[in-house]
Each structure stands twice: as C-alpha cells, then as structure tokens.
Amino acid sequence: MKDVFNVVGVIALAGASIFGVAYGGYRMYAFFAPRYVAVDNRVFQESQQYNEGMVRDLENLRMQYMSATPEQREALRALVLHRFSVYPEDKLPPDLLAFYSSLKGIQ
Questions:
Q1: Are residues 35 and 75 in the same domain?
Q2: Is residue 94's pLDDT more than 60?
Q3: Taking a C-beta distance cutoff of 8 angstroms, is the pair 43, 18 a contact?
Q4: Which one of 23, 34, 42, 48 is separated from 5 by 20 to 30 angstroms, measured CA to CA?
Q5: Whether residue 28 is found in the same domain as residue 17
Q6: Residues 33 and 59 occupy one common structural domain
C-alpha cells in the first residue's frame, strides 16, 4: 500500500511540476510578448521600405485630391487627413507637409 502512495505522490508531483513550468512559461510570454511586439513595430516604422511606401501613398492621395472635383474633394478630405495623421509630420517632405497643413487649416 505504501508503494501505491509513493507512486501516486510521484505522479502528482510530476503533474504539478509540469503545470508549474507551463504556467511559468505562459507568464513569461505574457510579460515579454508586448515588449517584443513594440520593438518589432518600432523597427518596422523606421524602415526605409515603410517610409518610402507611406510617402508614395500620401503623394498618390495628394494627386487624387488635386485632380478631384469639389464634391469629390469633400469626400476625400477626411480620408486624406486620417492617412496623413498616422505618419509623423517631421518625416514628411516639404510639399506634402504644406498640403497637409493647408487641409488641416480648412474647417
């Protein structure tokens, strides 16, 4: 009978140990994952591909806005303002910055 209790005790201890390791791994992941994602996001936003792509997209939006009729411009204005707002103003070329500032000034 004593051997059965020893076996059950060893199995319970092994199960608790496995649970503890798994839970500890989860807690570590929950702690470090947001930090890894934040670093990845910062690296992505500082990449040359992202910056060139955003400037190209914003240039295309400016060209669409400039070639639109007054009714279309009113509809495009909110979209253009939103797209420009997610990109840092200090990284905008002077022509796009002037365009964005003029759109922000229109009430």
A1: no
A2: yes
A3: no
A4: 23
A5: yes
A6: no
DSSP 91: G
Residue 67: domain span: 48-105
- Based on the fold, state whether residues 91 and 77 are members of the same structural domain: yes
pLDDT at 60: 95
Tokens of 43: 């690296």
Per residue, what are the HEC states of 39-90?
A: HHHHHHHCCHHHHHHHHHHHHHHHHHHHHCCHHHHHHHHHHHHHHHHCCCHH
- CA–CA separation, 3 vs 8, rounded Å? 9
53 and 42 co-located in one domain: no
Contact 57, 83 (CB under 8 A): yes
Left if phi > 0, otherwise alpha if psi is -120 to 50, otherwise beta: which for 11? Answer: alpha
- Structural domain total, the chain: 2
Percent of the chain with pLDDT over 70: 96
Kindly report, residue by residue over 33-83, the tens digit of the pLDDT.
Answer: 899 899 998 998 889 999 999 999 999 999 999 999 989 998 899 899 999
